[in-house]
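Troubleshooting log. The previous structure file for this entry was overwritten by mistake, so regenerating from the original sequence record. Sequence copied from the archived sheet and checked twice against the printout by T.R.
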Amino acid sequence: MQAESMGGLERNTGLVLEGGGMRGVFTSGVLDAFMRYELYFPYVVAVSAGACNGMSYMSRQPRRARYSNIDMLRKYGYLSLKNLLMKGSIFDPNLLYERFPNELLPFDYEAYGQNQAVFEMVCTNCQTGLAEYLTEKHDRRRMMAIVKASSSLPYVAQITEVDGHPMLDGGIVDSIPVQRAIETGHPMNVVVMTRNRGYRPTESDHKVPRFLYGDYPRLRVALSRRVEAYKRQLEMVERMEDWGEVMVIRPQRPMEVGRVCRDPEKLERLYEEGYAEGEKFCERVLSPPSAC
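Regenerated output below.
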């Protein structure tokens, strides 16, 4: 974290970014506010959509994630059942991980590589059924493979290979990786959530049939425990928040945006809410931003 931006935060405070598909536009708003106030952390761990948004935060490109999540979705319609049928993924992988960063919405690889902060992205290893926390600053292909794997939702995205291992969405096992942040030496963390406080999933866990991911029995076990694991993490974060062990930024009202929402008006409202919540947080812990 930059010394001039520490404010009331400890020097080794970490940043944890939850996933949530298109609910991640809330996170992109929060991170844009952080960049406006020059609030940067020495360690960031991110899952799924949080990893995608975190990439633009690490490369110091304000509004890039917002443009990708809202404007480019409106223009290119990269989220559709047609993509799932034709390309094996509900999100167009070639557009998101090839054309966007290299052509249509250039990613600043140089700035990302020069950033001294640690940025870990959470993936689920399909062979072990365990979470892996991967980082890459220089190998562009591996970098994009990791963020793609972290964001590959089960059932509606293809398995992505990283370092020769099959990987899927990190949220299957570790949706809110606060414990990982603590284990890496960051006892205090700012956690950006994509659900309001008190939310609990209403669906139940169920055994995954063998015809799905038949080659990966441990992945099927992880998927069959996913809902309960997420509930426990939500309870843990709220408990830690009450005890003053984490600082949480989250939506203040029940979510109207689903994981695969395509409504630009709803997405824009959620982005603006995220920006406002991020700005309020910065104003609590930092000095006012310098004039433009």
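Confidence is low (pLDDT under 50) at residues 1-5. Archived copy saved in two places this time.
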